[in-house]
Amino acid sequence: MFELPEAYTALQREAREFAASVRDIAERADEGDDIDPEMRKRLAASGIVSIMVPAAYGGRYERVDSLAVTVVREAFAAESGHLDSMLGMQGIGSYAISVGGSESVRAELLPQVGRLEAIAALALTEPGVGSDLKALTTSVAERDGELVVNGHKSFITNAGDADFYSVLAREGEGYSLVLVPASTPGVSVTKPHQIIAPHVLGDVVFDDVRVPADNRLGEPGQGFKLVLATLATFRVSVAGAAVGLAQSALQEAVRHAAGREQFGVSLARLGSIPGDLAMAWTEIEMARTLTYRAAAAAARDPLGNLHLSSMAKVGATEVAARVVDRAVQVMGRFGLVRGGKMERLYREARPMRVYEGSTEVILDSLAKQLVKGLTR
């Protein structure tokens, strides 16, 4: 696939127009530790969040479409990391409900997710557990028809502002996902950390939290299947966000270089700068092509094409890091100005290589798959 189908180009135009419309509040929102209320209000009014839930619950598509999500995140990340995260987490935090929740739970929550009336969160990592999720210590046990959750989750996106958490916990010899409303007694949130690109982030403690047995998502002990399904659907959208961010950084650098004269010539024609700009453009187009291909494949068969989504995520986020760094260098001191868009893009680019699967962890997994395939 070398060109987006018309249905997706129409969505792309819609997303770009909306992203441009919130440019006036992007800087403020991107510096916030909490969800920006005005950004939320405008995003809810746009109706775009409906792409994150199935049509049966108010969504635009029969099921969540990875290519649609990727195209929108590309447009959003070019303007605001806060906007991109707000959209992305609605899907990441609720997808397990879409595919594993009971009908009553889906009917209650998913329409609210699609209208941005309920903020979603996925609680996986813990203070001592990052990529090695099988080492987690949060537990869930069924007692007297209820599920009792105990544990401590850390670095959770939307913590404090979320209306519910999809919590991965150990249950017997397996791992289960449990839906925990944020208002449930025993749920508490602290915010001990903040990252270089300010983010809605916190730790969530579950102290003898009791929820109905109906709040288990999927079968007991099968939580990892739902987590993997979530990654298979949404990991490639991180690549889309990285492409959008890189494109925005390149545009900033080109505008600066074309409008500035040094040593009697345009900066865009001076020394190594033309090559830096051209290489950035080339790498972005390569990353975009792989990203769209992977997203289209994920839309057809998420788990069957997880390797492509993983390649796209690694490739695009590494490209974004290189492009933003080159863009800062091209702009010189103007690329270092505090509060400028380039500073925001530079800070947003770095975490992309860590969350939703770090580069090293993904490459290790891909290498194992590659070797296994060659030795069959």
Notes on the structure:
The structure is a single chain. The chain is an alpha+beta fold. The chain has 3 domains: 6-119, Butyryl-Coa Dehydrogenase, subunit A, domain 1, CATH 1.10.540; 121-219, Butyryl-CoA Dehydrogenase, subunit A, domain 2 (Beta Barrel); 224-374, Butyryl-CoA Dehydrogenase, subunit A, domain 3 (Up-down Bundle), CATH 1.20.140. It is built from 11 helices and 10 strands. The strands form 3 sheets. Strands 1-4-5-8 form a 4-stranded mixed β-sheet, with helices on one face. It has a 4-stranded antiparallel β-sheet with strand order 2-3-7-6, with no helix packed on it. A hairpin with a 2-residue loop joins strand 9 and strand 10 (265-266). Helix 7 (223-258) runs antiparallel to helix 8. The longest helix is centred in the middle third of the chain and has 36 residues, at 223-258. It is globular, with a radius of gyration of 21 Å. The model has no long low-confidence stretch (mean pLDDT 93).
